[in-house]
Specification:
By secondary structure, this protein is mainly alpha-helical. The protein has one domain. Helix content is about 80%, strand content about 0%. It has two helices and no strands. The protein is elongated. The mean pLDDT is about 95.
Length: about 70
């Protein structure tokens, strides 16, 4: 589960750290599933955040066009 105070920047930084671990030569098999589950949660959270931001930007642009 993601932290409710998570920022997009923090999420992408954590994803980068997970990717570095997975790209390394010394992958810890014991934590592989945990890392992949966390990465999946972060990716989904980022997608939702991007989608919400896109809708908000579209709303703002529409409001500006009306004025």
């Amino acid at each position: 589960m993601t932290d409710p105070d998570l920022s997009f920047q923090t999420a992408t930084q954590e994803l980068d750290e997970i990717l570095k671990k997975l790209d390394g030569d010394d992958v810890n098999i014991d934590s592989l599933t945990i890392d992949l589950e966390r990465a999946s949660e972060l990716i989904e959270w980022c997608r939702q955040r991007l989608e919400a931001t896109r809708h908000e930007v579209e709303r703002i642009v529409t409001d500006l066009d009306k004025n």
